[in-house]
């Protein structure tokens, strides 16, 4: 683990949350306030172009804040993939199409600023643990629920990486060996059962097999492939039986994952973040129902976790940006 | 976490592994050598009698080593249950029938020696990490497989307890919601599917339903209830189909547990210890087969864990005794 550098109290750091479709960045002060938030499209045509997108995102955030690059102390980045923070290398990123990309040295040369990199979910977990709902707690699990699914844990007050920086890749654990193929090559992985694209695919399949649903009205004359997880949420909110069933089943799988992680890690809380962590959404309701059922059925889970295990992220999209900045400003 | 006290290089500590049926104890030197190993029956009729059994075990080990109580520096104990090491209290132990027993103060008064307590599997994990196959590794999972099933992890070089000392109670995670009732009150827990007593119960049920098997010859005219897991192992070694099937199924469940723990914790190795961790046994073979199948099916698990994830305990029964002693002699 890298130690926090000694940095001035009023230092500004750019935090970057690199995604497969969008790059979000902001200038973060040492209190975790985010200034000049920007979002740009990720160019994933070549690794060099992706790195250029990132550099562009950093410059745009600095400009939007009304400061100069000279006033910025350093840059922290969360990257969707397997990352070696000590070497500054991303070993593999399916979303970015990267293999062994020397992220840190490239960006440090380009931006003339010190850079630090981490896995994106690790960065978001760090953000939540320093500035969010788990502030001050020593043991928590952060579940990122969106296009992908992964967890990262804060253990004994520190980000837990595991032997290969992969601790928490529960999104690629199979919960149904005869389930749908996952983009990782496995079958029935939690991500292939319950992440955003899985919900959309599941709904498309059900419509193709002739099921009636409000979803047909929502997509109208568009091809079925255009149906997105947002449509499934909207239909469920309007009481559609098929959409409700799809979200309930996904919620059950996610609840089982949370239950297993809790039995393994005995956290104080589990925070749900990411694009699908929306208060009052039918998926979040289904997760709550599922976890409640496990609490009822397992005396030991109940004794450990009590009834207040689950929390929604309070930082939402800023978890990734503030956590990336905290790679520079905190001992993690 | 308690810090290691400064103790002399030649100090002797008594390590005690308290079980529901037997208490094992030994005098341990600072190199982890065990002297004067003894094993006595646990009197669980009342908490006070159990504590007396433990004190008796300590005195017997000291006597067997040929030293005096005055030469002993302190006593460390591993207790099967939920333990608060800071308060010296066992909150609950199903095996011992304890609730909120003030273990440390009672034993310190009785033995006139400083005492430290921990959960028994935590102590064994600590023993393995200091003296066993995972010596020097920062991240490992220890799976105790015997009358009960539980895991404990060494994370970033330290014993990981979780928020309530329950991290690793995967033995009480349900892997089959319609499975057999577990003694914890849950249903289909890993322990109810794959621990020693579960294997025996499963075999008894199969024989009751009329299945033919070598097991019938092994128990002869005894009542079916006398059939033990040892009989299932013996029958499987002799090629019995029913016994082999029972162990293979249990091995599949255990392999799934190891796979899930590995995806959650990304350990360098997983050590299998406890009474059923016997080299070449059909259960261990089945676990290996099951884990190999998950490695084949999950590219991410393969990338993380490689092919040398599983190890058998090298310390066997001494893991608990040396780990209990290490509660005194190591910063853990």
TrEMBL record, chains A, B:
**InterPro entries the UniProt entry points to:** ATPase_NBD (IPR043129), ROK (IPR000600)
The record ties this protein, via Pfam families, to:
ROK
Name recorded for this polypeptide: Glucokinase
Gene3D superfamilies referenced in this protein's UniProt entry, alphabetically: 3.30.420.40
Q: Which domain of life is it from?
A: Bacteria
- Family of the protein in this entry: Belongs to the ROK (NagC/XylR) family.
- According to its UniProt entry, this protein's organism is Ktedonospora formicarum
């Amino acid at each position: 683990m890298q130690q926090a550098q000694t940095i001035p109290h009023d230092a500004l750091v750019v935090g970057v949350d690199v995604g497969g479709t969008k790059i979000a960045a902001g200038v973060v002060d040492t209190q975790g306030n985010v200034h000049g938030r920007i979002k740009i499209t990720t160019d994933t045509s070549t690794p060099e172009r992706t790195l250029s997108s990132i550099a562009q995102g950093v410059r745009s955030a600095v400009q939007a804040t009304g400061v100069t690059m000279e006033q910025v102390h350093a840059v922290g980045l969360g990257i969707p993939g397997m990352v070696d923070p000590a070497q500054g290398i991303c070993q593999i990123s399916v979303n970015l199409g990267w293999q062994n990309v020397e992220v840190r040295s490239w960006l440090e040369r380009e931006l003339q600023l010190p850079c630090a990199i981490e896995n994106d979910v690790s960065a978001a977990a760090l953000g939540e643990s320093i500035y969010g709902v788990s502030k001050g707690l020593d043991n928590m699990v952060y579940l990122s629920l969106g296009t992908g699914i992964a967890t990262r844990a804060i253990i004994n007050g520190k980000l837990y990486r595991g032997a290969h920086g992969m601790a928490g890749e529960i999104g690629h654990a199979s919960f149904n060996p005869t389930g749908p193929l996952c983009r990782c090559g496995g079958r029935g992985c939690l991500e292939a059962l319950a992440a955003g694209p899985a919900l959309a695919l599941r709904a498309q399949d059900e419509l193709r097999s002739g099921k009636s649903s409000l979803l047909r009205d929502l997509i109208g004359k568009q091809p079925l492939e255009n149906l997105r997880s947002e449509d499934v949420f909207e239909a469920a909110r309007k009481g559609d039986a098929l959409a409700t069933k799809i979200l309930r089943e996904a919620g059950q799988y996610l609840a089982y994952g949370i239950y297993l992680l809790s039995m393994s890690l005995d956290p104080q809380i589990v925070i749900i973040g990411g694009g699908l962590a929306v208060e009052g959404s039918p998926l979040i309701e289904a997760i709550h129902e599922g976890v409640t059922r496990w609490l009822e059925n397992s005396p030991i889970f109940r004794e450990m976790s009590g009834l207040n295990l689950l929390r929604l992220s309070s930082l939402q999209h800023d978890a990734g940006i503030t956590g990336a900045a905290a790679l520079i400003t905190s001992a993690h």
